[in-house]
Design goal:
Length: 919
């Protein structure tokens, strides 16, 4: 059967088991352009026209349209280039067993040239499942049809397929063509074009043709007559490609944009591992103390609790798994299949916390003493749960073998085997650096676990990919570390396995980014945490191997996410799909922006910085860190935010899915790693944090870097370079550029460094990839000084973002600001003049607030977004408001925890407020 044609004639059996009448009819829907209330015009809607019939209403693997997360009436439109005539449509409803249910009501309407008019049906639709629901009516001729669907209370609606059957003579319609998503490509590499072209009925002579519309160089197509082909570009620049097609004399076309960019440097930058360090900075000192004294002990407490009704599954699972391995009676596994994750994250967080110099602070010393005791208690328990060959996953060890018979089985892809293993491996790295390699218990156990995976999975062995990415970036991170520690390429096998796991991802869904192979992915889609972990792992492999197809995919995914799906706070994941990305420019204020996605995004941007030696990626991870992530734990270290919307925040002590609780501190406490990177003859300064950090060898000698700064409250920075021996090398100092995303424009423009000196003498540094580069022979005590310009900026978003039209936000330095109801009860007012930054020593432990007046003359105050939600007099809930709207482990074998998530809380804050000029 030809693509786009679904001829139904005598003797054709429909999925519902009915025979059609002996009258030829053609499905007209594939020749239409679909739009929907939830997505606008989106390529994913083309799944509605898939010629493969669903096996059941739950058969969502090939894609569906749904109104989720909306629980009100939604619609889908089909539009043709000329009128079509029909007497019958067929709709196959989707049911996902969770949020998408059969509809309460469905209404078909036709466009009469000025409005949609309801179509009178011969009989009501059945609204049943597992069959095509038939809508029959008197002949209708129209250019547009709308299917309006009302859900049952508390649910959303979904559609798997929609057919529109022709009546009478077939109309003459040009083909419906979608060229595909915009993307980037590395010069000399390939981009894989996967266009969609559909005819009512394709005839002889109906053809397709790719061509270049514009661009600075030559474009070569592997097969210019094929919808799916590959293209190469001869030089860097912006291109427009066109796919044209014809149906007889009628033609149509679709275009896409391609940006060809230069390849990254041949060698990536080297990692600066987090080792014992000290911090001396007003903001960071306070945040780190709250993590060490408050939050990490809180996580330890909850991981050791056995009385939790939800969010359970801590250290007790390891105790029970060890009993099972010894052949002793044991209890069942508690909580989600991935509950080991927050234990491993907490272990890594404790290791990182113990590397921070307490500087005589009695509370920190006491907390660190308790952490050392906890590690000595926990490590033997965790290692006792490791199976003899190195495998570690207590959910599997404690599972009923009749229900979960084997490791790495496709039907258990959703059980997070790699996800939890990856966190264990990563915890071993920072345990090794904490102990200086003197305690190898976790390091050796991590090698044993990684070796177990390598021995079972790979080319010529077992194929596998995990439903939730994490193992991939963990294996690369560990492989690099093992190579640095042991040499001889000992870690190369782990990096090779990471690539195999990535390459194996296909045949699945957008939700976990397994819909097409990695090198053919150009748009950020699906579950946001899985996505950024995936892209981080892809960036690792691109940097390690130099594979140009990986490089092209990674730069495309980065560009799509940062310039079309990125919040002004540096968060990602609008929540328009399950905990994930929506379509381009879908950036509603009640964002999901899960804290884990911010952690993963920092890793991804950091990997891009290593690969490209470009400061813009450090600008971005600073933005995410200082806004989306830094405030996810409360000031007192006793509560956290699972999600980070821009119009309200709910803090809680724990969560039914506490995947973020240890991820937040382990990411923030790796500050030395984010602050510096290095090359054999260069050191890169990416963050400005008052600190004393050992960066390892540069130009053959150990180097200590000492920063003195009150940034982000003030712009002055002094950096003392202390090489153990005098050496010549380059210091690359990031020149902050606040223009991080094409989505946002800020005024006044702020960039550059002021008053750059070395040892008090002005220097004329060259600017390379966003860094001020100072090349000289350095000796201990040499001092770099400069000022980062600090001005209040007014931010306006692109008009393509519907949610922010007529609104503005404010930033000071790297900090995005929020207006809280505690400072001004009415957040609906209009802003006028630019507010001024003012140091408020008694506000939130000391902060720079933005002070001004609203248009009505009343006082206006904004605080840094990361400090939001810390002044409520209401008690903090143990768990967020129960809503039940999220399945945290779809496809998992043991979904025993109740879904508890934050509903949109009352609008107690705003990042975006009404703009006088545009309101």
């Amino acid at each position: 059967m030809l693509l786009g044609s679904a001829t139904l004639g005598a003797g054709i059996l429909l999925p519902a088991g009915r025979l059609t009448a002996a009258v030829a009819a053609v499905d007209l829907a594939p020749a239409a352009v679909p739009t929907a209330s939830t997505t606008g015009e989106d390529l994913r809607l083309l799944k509605l026209f898939d010629t493969a019939a669903p096996a059941a209403s739950t058969d969502t693997a090939r894609g569906m349209w749904s109104g989720w997360p909306h629980r009100d009436t939604q619609w889908i439109d089909l539009g043709w280039t000329a009128p079509v005539t029909t007497t019958r449509i067929e709709v196959y409803w989707a049911v996902d067993g969770s949020e998408v249910a059969l509809p309460k009501r469905a209404q078909l309407s036709r466009w009469d040239g000025s409005r949609f008019v309801p179509v009178a049906l011969r009989r009501p639709p059945t609204l049943g499942k597992d069959v095509y629901d038939v809508f029959e009516f008197a002949p209708v001729s129209t250019e547009r049809l709308r299917l309006e669907v009302e859900p049952v209370a508390g649910k959303s609606v979904g559609v798997l397929r929609w057919r529109v059957l022709s009546a009478g003579a077939l109309p003459t319609l040009a083909p419906a063509i979608a060229a595909g998503v915009d993307r980037s490509v590395i010069v000399g590499g390939r981009t894989y074009l996967a266009a969609d072209a559909r005819w009512v009925r394709r005839g002889n002579g109906d053809a397709l043709r790719w061509s270049k519309v514009s661009g600075p160089g030559e474009v070569s197509f592997a097969n210019p007559a094929a919808a799916q082909t590959a293209a190469r570009f001869s030089q860097a620049g912006d291109y427009v490609l066109k796919l044209a097609g014809n149906a007889g004399d009628l033609t149509s076309a679709s275009t896409l944009h391609v940006r060809a960019v230069a390849p990254p440097p041949a060698k990536r930058l080297d990692v600066v591992y987090t080792t014992p360090w000290s911090v001396d900075n007003p903001m960071w000192s306070a945040r780190i103390k709250s993590l060490i004294v408050g939050w990490i002990p809180h996580c330890v407490n909850y991981c050791e609790r056995t009385d939790l009704a939800t969010g359970q599954g801590g250290i007790d699972n390891f105790l029970e798994a060890a009993k099972a391995l010894r052949g002793e009676p044991h209890a069942a596994h508690k909580g989600f299949v991935f509950s080991n994750a927050w234990v491993h994250q907490t272990v890594e967080s404790m290791c990182l916390a113990l590397m921070v110099d307490a500087a005589g602070d009695a509370e920190m010393i006491a907390a660190q003493t308790a952490m050392r005791a906890t590690l000595e208690r926990w490590i033997p328990i965790i290692l006792a749960a490791q199976e003899p060959d190195g495998y570690l996953h207590t959910a599997y060890t404690l599972a009923d073998r009749a229900k979960w018979p084997a490791r790495w089985s496709p039907e258990h892809r959703g059980d997070h085997e790699g996800y939890v293993a990856g966190y264990f491996i990563e915890s071993a790295i920072n345990h090794h650096t904490l102990t200086g390699g003197k305690d190898l218990r976790l390091y050796n156990a991590a090698k044993k676990l990684a070796d177990c995976w390598v021995s079972h999975i790979g080319p010529g062995k077992q194929a596998w990919f995990d439903g939730h990415q994490e193992m991939e970036q963990a294996l690369v991170r560990f492989g690099r570390f093992v190579n640095d520690v042991e040499g001889g390429g000992r870690g190369d096998g782990y990096i090779g396995l990471a690539r195999f796991l990535l390459d194996s991802r296909e045949g699945g869904s957008e939700y976990d980014q397994s819909h097409v192979p990695p090198i053919r992915q150009y748009e950020a889609v699906g579950h946001a945490v899985r996505a950024v972990y995936f892209y981080s792992g892809m960036a690792d492999i691109a940097a390690e191997t130099g594979d140009v197809d990986y490089q092209s995919a990674v730069v495309s995914l980065w560009d799509n996410m940062v310039n079309r799906k990125y919040y002004v706070t540096g968060g990602v994941g609008s929540g328009d799909t399950a905990e994930g990305f929506g379509v381009d420019y879908a950036l509603k204020h009640d964002a999901y922006c899960e804290s884990c996605s911010s952690c993963g995004l920092i890793f991804f941007q950091y990997k891009m910085n290593l690969a490209y030696h470009d400061a813009k990626f450090a600008d971005l991870y600073e933005e995410t860190m200082y806004n989306a992530l830094l405030g996810s734990v409360g000031d007192d270290g006793k509560s956290f935010c699972y999600t980070n919307p821009l119009d309200g925040t709910e803090r809680a002590k724990w969560h039914s899915c506490p995947c973020c609780v240890g991820n937040i501190p382990r990411t923030l406490l790796m500050a030395p790693t984010w602050t510096y990177a290095k090359a054999p003859g260069a050191l890169f300064v990416n963050l400005f944090i008052g600190s004393r950090i050992q960066v390892g060898d540069v130009a053959g000698t150990p180097v200590e870097m000492v920063q003195e700064t009150d940034y982000p409250w003030k712009g002055g920075v002094a950096i003392t370079v202390n090489p153990a021996e005098t050496r010549a090398f380059a210091v690359h100092v990031r020149v902050p550029d606040r223009a991080t995303s094409a989505l946002y424009a800020a005024t006044p423009a702020v960039s550059g460094l002021e008053q750059l000196t070395v040892n008090g003498q002005p220097v004329a540094a060259s600017i390379e990839n966003g860094y001020a580069v100072i090349r000289r022979t350095w000796k201990a005590g040499d001092r770099i000084a400069f000022a980062v310009p600090m001005k209040v900026q007014r931010i306006r978003a692109s008009d393509k973002v519907a949610a922010t039209r007529g609104q503005q936000a404010f930033r000071y330095g790297p900090l995005v600001y929020a207006f809280e109801a505690v400072d001004q009860a009415n957040l609906e007012r209009v802003t006028t003049a630019m507010p001024k930054p003012m140091w408020q020593p008694d506000l939130l432990g000391g902060t720079v607030a933005l002070e001004g007046t609203w248009q009505d003359g009343s006082p206006m105050r904004a605080i840094p977004y990361y400090q939001r939600g810390n002044r409520s007099s209401d008690p903090v809930r143990e768990f967020p408001i129960a809503d039940g709207s999220v399945s945290y482990a779809p496809g998992g074998a043991q979904l025993v925890a109740t879904a508890v998530v934050a509903e949109a809380p009352p609008q107690t804050l705003r990042v975006w407020v009404t703009d006088e000029q545009r309101g």
